[in-house]
Amino acid sequence: MDIQEYFRLVFSDYTLRTITLGTAILGAVCGMLGSFAVLRKQSLLGDAISHAALPGIAIAFLITGAKDSNTLLLGALVSGLVGTFWIRGIVTKTHLKSDTALGLILSLFFGFGMLLLTFIQKQPNANQAGLDKYLFGQAATLVESDVWLMATVTGVCLIVLLLFWKEFKILLFDADYTKTLGFNTKFIDILITTFIVLAIVLGLQTVGVVLMSAMLLAPAAAARQWTNSLSTMVILAAVFGAFSGVFGTAISASQNNLSTGPVIVLVAAVFVLFSFVFSPSRGVLFKQIRFIKNRRDLELHKTLAFMYNIAETHDNISHPHTIKILNNFQGFTRGTLQKLVDKNYVTLDGNMWSLTEEGFKTASNLYNQQNKSDE
Amino acid sequence: MKQNIAVKVDDLTVAYNYKPVLWDIDLEIPEGVLMAIVGPNGAGKSTLIKSILGILKPIAGSVTIYGKPYEEQRKLVAYVPQKGSVDWDFPTTALDVVMMGTYGSLGWIKRPKQKEKKAALEALEKVGMLAFKGRQISQLSGGQQQRIFLARALVQNASIYFMDEPFQGVDATTEIAIINILKELRKAGKTVIVVHHDLQTVPEYFDWVTFLNVKKIATGPVKDIFNDDNLTKTYGINYKVSIQE
């Protein structure tokens, strides 16, 4: 199946449609909530939560003995929340910094989860096979009820986001100030965190424990490059996330044996890379171009000002001078001289240069501006 | 002259870990003063403000605003945090930050409307930042960011203003602009409490001063208590300032 065939089939084929819808919704909700995680500098929180969810999945399976995805995700939710509150507890009750607490909980829970998984695999239970799909996710196992669950959570999340938009925004920007205004910051904080945990848990089946945090961070990081408004950033992140889901599914469905989760994450990474390079205001490319252009302009102005200082000492401003004088001047290159000629500020005659009327005027304006801004 | 007491602090003790940062502070701030809190680094100046505002939980002690607990009087109080306490790369505009000053009176869920926007624009004008209302906050200079914070507090239209180092990292022009606004607030009968570092300017800017170094050293009118004796007690070294009469 190639990509074109995929896009023809996606509207008619039930399985393909389910998976595509699922990954798109997942990408959107992760992008939205990821914006908040990124802006709170809690990028690693997502990673810790998703790893912390693994033992929950294993324990839920050990208790019920069944592989019903809703039960397992409930287990993931509980252990994810436990991990989150332990992290908060460690940070508030000890001197440890949050990155240490995150790293600690992440590896502790993940290690315990892996231990349980290997224990389960050794059991003589035919049902146990396939639990390890939660490590890297398997979008192909998505069924309609999973998608409905995702859609419901996303819908609730959207409503909460719209209702508490102002509270979320001010808490993200200035938590102490929010407190003085009389808002219960703990409540807002728990609300945001709970939804982040929910989104992560929803994604475990599709993207898996290990890569889940990228789903959260990549669309948000990409969106931040394009806008200076929080609402635009959240919307853009949702769009990037949804497209990563769709394109990732399309690519993995059209190429045999490519697992969907990693492909979705890679597509999201492409969004990030593209945004880092090509964003007009924050992108590397335009920043560099602006930098070089600025430098050139400055060099040009500096050379012109230098010439002006020499020309000023003569009655006739167009009195010719030898190019050699300029060699003592640092900003001077042959290139800048040629550019000054192109701009009609200077005329050349053999080894001599002379300032034109226009060049003199421009230079004197530059000079006055400089004096003014020094004042 | 009998003055109302705007802020009253009783037996306030605050500790971060084991060491107390503030020890048994009693403080009465009369209504209508422009007061500086001075003291060396680590003296607990910011901590005092944050404890009064309920951002930090004290180990012991109580705070009243016009005789009632702070929680009931929140709307009378505005806060200007240290500029460095927030991430200025946050995706928002100057106007948007100033609008945040209206969130408290709006309460939960309700969105700011035209009325709130108008108030925010007026505050921006007062601090001379109206031209920058649409500017992304990371593209503002340090002094401009400080003015934005001040405008956000002005929007709250409070009676008591707490400011944590509003002159930190601002140039002379901004400093004068800010102090003029503070003096205007005092003229309007407001009480302004400022954590301040530059001892030289205390007599010129303020009429009331509190010396703090974990304990309260002294509090009162600048002309009575701003002297070498108290400075030495607070800073531990033989500090001499010449006070212009």
List the helices and strands and how they pair.
The complex is a heterodimer of chains A (375) and B (245).
Chain A: H1 3-9, H2 14-39, H3 43-52, H4 54-64, H5 69-93, H6 98-121, H7 133-136, H8 144-163, H9 165-173, H10 175-180, H11 185-204, H12 212-224, H13 230-254, H14 260-278, H15 284-311, E1 321-322, H16 324-327, H17 334-342, E2 346-349, E3 352-355, H18 357-374
Antiparallel strand pairs in A: 1-3, 2-3
Chain B: E1 5-15, E2 20-30, E3 34-38, H1 45-52, E4 60-65, E5 68-69, H2 70-73, E6 77-80, H3 94-99, H4 103-106, H5 114-126, H6 142-155, E7 160-164, H7 172-187, E8 191-195, H8 202-205, E9 208-213, E10 215-221, H9 222-225, H10 228-235
Quickly name the level 1 CATH class of the largest domain in chain A: Mainly Alpha
Structural class of chain B: alpha/beta
N- and C-termini, Cα separation of chain B:
23 Å
Return residue spans of chain A where pLDDT drops below 50 for at least 5 consecutive residues. none
Morphology of chain A: elongated
Task: Tell me the helix content of chain A.
Answer: over 70%
| Global morphology of chain B | globular
Number of strands of chain B: 10
What would you note in describing this structure?
The complex is a heterodimer of chains A (375) and B (245). By secondary structure, chain A is mostly helical. Chain A folds into 2 domains: 3-281, ABC transporter involved in vitamin B12 uptake, BtuC (Orthogonal Bundle); 286-374, Arc Repressor Mutant, subunit A, CATH 1.10.10. Helix content of chain A is 74%, strand content 3%. Chain A has 18 helices and 3 strands. Chain A has a 3-stranded antiparallel beta sheet with strand order 1-3-2. In chain A, helix 3 (43-52) crosses helix 5 (69-93) and helix 8 packs antiparallel against helix 11. Chain B has helices spanning 45-52, 70-73, 94-99, 103-106, 114-126, 142-155, 172-187, 202-205, 222-225, 228-235; strands spanning 5-15, 20-30, 34-38, 60-65, 68-69, 77-80, 160-164, 191-195, 208-213, 215-221. Chain B has a 6-stranded mixed beta sheet, with helices on both faces. Chain B has a 4-stranded antiparallel beta sheet with strand order 2-1-4-5. The model of chain B has no long low-confidence stretch (mean pLDDT 91). The chains are: A mainly alpha (375), B alpha/beta (245). At the A-B interface, helix 9, helix 10 and helix 13 of A face helix 4 of B.
